[in-house]
Amino acid sequence: MKKHILTALIFLFNFGVSQVIYKVPIHDTIDLGLPPFIERSIEMAEADSAEAIIFDIDTFGGRLDAATQIKDAILSANIPTVAFINRRAISAGALISLSCEKIVMTSGGTIGAATAVDISGKKGTEKVISYMREEMAATAESRNRNVDIAKGMVDEDLSFTHLFIDGDSVEVNDLEGRKEGKLITLTTELAIKYQMADDEQETFDALLASMDLQDATIKNTKENWSESIVRFLTNPVVASLLTTFGFLGILFELQSPGWGIPGSIGLVCLALSLGASFIARLATMTDVLIILAGIALIIVEIAVIPGFGIAGIGGIALILWGLYALLLPDTPVGPEIEAMAMWGFIIGIIGGLIGLVLLFKLMTKTAFWQKLTAPGVEGAEAGYSSSVGWETLVGLEGETLSDLRPSGWITVDDQRVFVVSEGDFIEKNCKVKILSVDGNRVVVKKLNSKE
After folding, report:
1. DSSP secondary structure string, 82-116?
2. What's the CATH number where 21 sits?
3. How far apart are CA 104 and CA 228, in angstroms?
4. pTM (predicted TM-score)
5. Could you report the per-residue pLDDT of 182-240, keeping only the tens digit for each?
6. Which residues pair with 438 in a beta bridge?
7. CATH assignment at residue 388
């Protein structure tokens, strides 16, 4: 009797629990903002014990590295995955679709044309084509779909006359892409015929009905604010501006006493850039180490080695190399992505330099800057001198009160004077001679022991 009661309770409980389906849109251009969103959607569906997760796909493609990340996430999902190709899944969209366990297409839909091209339509390098071809083949094989067709979607140099379907060799004469020099793009009818798709349904509701899930609760997922920010920050131009401002801000701070606004802005910019790059899997530890090595060389140049030489130049070169590497993924990319990264890098450098000039102009107008750099604002009672009468100091000898890099303070004739060297680095407590006076500009040179 107790067993019957328990069975009835379990039946009533299951009857009252609604089935859950997650619907995830993959529309427009596939970029680096999508992988975190797809991964989060899959985790939510798994935590909710969803019956399936359905990807509503309508895209002409996009970044290969982003599509590869999405493909890996779908293949690793612990719940059934369905690709609902709602009109088209071209290029990177085809790779994402093939990673799903089931593919359903609307009438008049297309899937394929997955070769890598740049923005002008020029075919990618052999390295990129080979990578994409094998990614498509491995993904199709993992879902028991035809590998030859998957490869033919990427490489136009391949050709075939027969395909093995359900253990039989079938002659193919209705695929234009089977010929050498032609890429394969399948219509809905041909995709189902050659088992690259499983079914044809016109609407999402019809798809649910075909899966006997018409009464399921549908949960739609959307990008959250953090994923939108990551997508914005990983834009090549924005990423370049952030890293450039970060580098210039810290460099400017190293040349100023204490710690202030430029260094803080620089740290925030670098944190935003590196954080977004790590989330989007653009930044690697190698890239970070290259940038840190460059910063270390510049610090050594400023703090240890007088003047500016190999260490400083090498540091700047390493930082620029690291910043450019942050814009490129580890996966092979075509000329389009490389061109976007390069232009973003150049725009970032130019924008950073312009911003630094504007910041410098604003800083020079502040009272703090005037007190820091203009000796004439100090009173005579403190031992400072104005430019009036400095001409009488020409030829006199004095001693440096600070390092001249190339400017700093000296004492001469019981006066404290702000001077510049002829361009050389002069250490503190060295004997110097005043060569000339031009207004507020007092030029000195270091005296050798023989002089």
Report:
1. EEEEEEEEETHHHHHHHTSSEEEE-TT-EEE----
2. 3.90.226.10
3. 29
4. 0.58
5. 888 899 999 999 889 999 999 999 999 999 988 899 999 887 776 677 767 766 667 66
6. 441
7. 2.40.50.140
